Amino acid sequence: MENDHHGTDEKFMQDALKEAWRAAEKGEVPVGAVIVREGRIIARGHNLRERLGDPTAHAEMLAMRDAAQVVGGWRLNGCTLYVTMEPCPMCAGAAIQARLDRIVYGAADPKAGAAGSCVDLLSRDCFNHRVAVTGGVLAGKCAFVVQEFFRKLRATGTEQDREPGKLPGRGCHAGPDLI
Predict the structure, then answer these.
(1) Burial environment of residue 170 by CB neighbours within 10 A (0 to 12, 13 to 18, 19 or more)
(2) Of residues 19, 50, 60, 148, which has the active-site annotation?
(3) From CA 77, how far away is CA 156, in angstroms rounded?
(4) Known catalytic residue: 148?
């Protein structure tokens, strides 16, 4: 992790964790994101795929859409995306297209991460923009929220049996106290 960003990265990752817990409370896979420009949060997002029935409603995508509205265009130069889980290929690609300066993520995602865990789209030279990446910020706390969600999901039934907005999020209220 880059020392000159350490304290700031942890501060904004705490905000992304709050978004992740909001997703869990709605029965969504708990991933949260915030976008920061000039030292302040300009957009927030958390997973809403189940609730919206939209495969693109990832925390990062929703936050980037809101940030584009705030800045008045699709170019998010000067912005940093803080996200609790390593971005997937879709979100990493969108970050490149949006011209984000940086992505800071918490927990690695060995099954779908596109910042080095599964594939590494963000370090490729072939794209017209390069996004700097810092991983592992508050990784334990970021991994815990996802692990706790799926632990509760397994205890109450399979994901296919789950109704959107229902289990297991209702029992995750104790979680935000850990951040």
Answers:
(1) middle
(2) 60
(3) 43
(4) no
